[in-house]
Fold this protein.
Amino acid sequence: MDFIIFIVAMGALIYGADFIIKESERIALHFNISHFVIGATLVAFGTSLPEMAASVMASSQGKSDMAVANVVGSVIFNITLVLGVVFFIAKEMIPKRNLFALDSAWVVIPPVLFFVMIQDGEIGRVDGMLYLLLMASYLLFLFTSSKEELAGELDEDLAKEKFAWGKTALLLSVGFALTIGGANFVIESGTNIARDFGISE
């Protein structure tokens, strides 16, 4: 039963995050927020929303091992599995933005900082504040660099649709409910499955 709950909860997380991303884009477009801002913030944050929701829920339930492992594991899978599959399938990839020259340091700094933080065997609020400041610094860096490079991240079909506050508010509510509820059940069912197989959180 826990396996079924886990799969359904993961689906709720994914669809909930998708609703939030799409409706956030609608609001941004309605208020004429630039394509760069939409791509650099909503799309980037939205793809990490399920992981953040699951980790926050695990942390609130006192399951710190699962909260941290979820983040570390997702980073490893994104870099190895996701990039590996993309690079393997694509014949050639030439990003408009010079990612290697502009963003490579920002890719390296967070893991190195994490390695330094865990040397005392504890991760606290000060560490969290440092990471939030690092995130704010990266956003500032993005805004001060080329402002049109990330425009391609925008869903152009979405920009053509008519905006309706009622529909947007409803779908946002559904998205948050699915994300929060899905995160809760993912942690609960995932914990039970781990225990059944004698695997640590």
Notes: Residues 2-97+146-196 form one domain.
